Here is the input.
Amino acid sequence: LENYSRDPKEVLRLTQTRVGCPQFTEAGWKSLLAGEYVDFDAVAQEIFGYRVDNSDRWHQIWNLFAKCMAFVFHMRRSELETYNEFIKELFISTDLTHNVIACDKAIRTFLGTSKHHLFYDTHIFIRFQHSHIIPGGIHY
Here is the structure.
């Protein structure tokens, strides 16, 4: 993976042909390998035929994403579990699942543009929680 910036097509090919590679979309793999935002709706639509519009569907696509991420970055498993727990708590705390999904998209977009933060950094995500989940938040 350290060669990704030099030859992304070859890294993608090697990843997808490795034994045990999880099924994922090509666009999803490209974004994941580049450390960019992965569009869960696009991946879910292509693989499962639906958009992510409830907690069950979010968890299904998250689990697939985490499986793919751990396939290439095995040392990030604990980090992914931490984020999964963070989002699970948000789903439990409100009936407004679309707000939680929007909050997750905002967080993952932020992480895809910031090379200084990881899924572990849940203390950073509080501002997204305030803007998407708490009444009166800018995106509530």
Observations:
- The CA atoms of residues 37 and 108 lie 6 Å apart.
- The longest helix spans residues 55-72.
- The mean pLDDT is 94.
- Helices lie at 8-17, 26-34, 40-47, 55-72, 77-93, 97-113, 126-132.
